[in-house]
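for the writeup, i need someone to sanity check this before i put it in the appendix. the sequnce is what the collaborator sent (i think, or maybe the updated version? ugh). structure was predicted straight from it, no edits. if anything looks off just tell me and ill rerun, i have time this weekend
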Amino acid sequence: MTFPFQAFRQVHERGRATRGVALMGICNVTPDSFSDGGLYQEPAAARARVDELVAQGSDIVDLGGESTRPGAAPVTASEQIRRVLDTVRYAVSRGVCVSIDTASAEVAEACLVAGACAVNDVSCLRDDALARVVAARGAALVLMHSRGTQDKMRGFSQYPDSGYGDVVRDVLDEWGAAAERARARGVARDALVMDPGLGFAKNARQSAELLARIGEIVRALDVPVAVGASRKSFLTIVDSDTSPTERLGASIAAVLHAARAGTSMVRVHDVRATKQAVDLTRHLGGPTSKAGAV
C-alpha cells in the first residue's frame, strides 16, 4: 500500500530529478488573496487554473480556500470546503498531486478523503487536531513557520526588528517544536516538509535574511525544505513601487537562489516563467540545486 505522503514524495523527488527543484503551483479559490484574489472563485475558473498550472509544469497544485494575507478574516471550515472541494476532486481526477492549503482539521479531512495527498499548514500547527488528521490519512504535512493568526498581523512585512534574535535559529527552534508535536500525534518524519514562512510574522529584512541563509536551514534539517517567495511584499526591498504582479523578476531570482542552496520545493504563482528560468539555468550548466534533503 502506498500512503499519500509517499505519493507526494515521489512527485516531489521526480520534480527535483528533472530540474533540481519541485514546482508547487498556486490556486487560491478566494475573493481576497493578496495577489490573485477573486480570479478563481467560480468552479470553472478554478478548474481552468488547475489545467493551466499542470500544462505549465507544476509538479504539485496547492489549493486554498482561505486568504492568508495580513489582516484577512478567518473563513469557516464549511465555507473553505464549499470553495475548494469541487476543484480538489477535479484535480485528483486528472491525476494531479494536490496539497490543500489550510490550518483546519475539518477542511484537511474533507480534502484528503477526496484524494489530496498533502496539507500545507501556514499556522505552524496551531491546532494539534490537524496533525491527527494528517497522521490518520497518511498524508504529507508542509509545516510552515509562523506566529499568531493572519487577522492579527499588522500589515505586509511589518514585524518588530526585536522580534527575533538570530532569525534562522529562532525559526528552526520554533519549527522544530511544532514538528515534534506533529510527530507525537503520529505524523511520520518522512511525511514532513519545512517552510520557513517568508513574510509570516517577519518584516522584509527578516524574510530576506531567511532567504539569504536558506542553505543553513537545508543543512540543519533531515526533511525537505520548501520556499514560498512568490510575489511577496518583502521583494520590494529591491523595487519599492511594485504591485504583487509586478514582482516576477524578484520572485524568479528568489527561486534560483533557493534552488542553488538546496531547497527541494518552491511555491509559485508564475509556473511557466519560473520553470523556464530553472530549466535554462540547468541547461547552461549552472546547478539549480546542491545536495539537500529529499
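Confidence is low (pLDDT under 50) at residues 289-294. The domain at 4-280 is CATH 3.20.20.20 (TIM Barrel).
thx in advance!!
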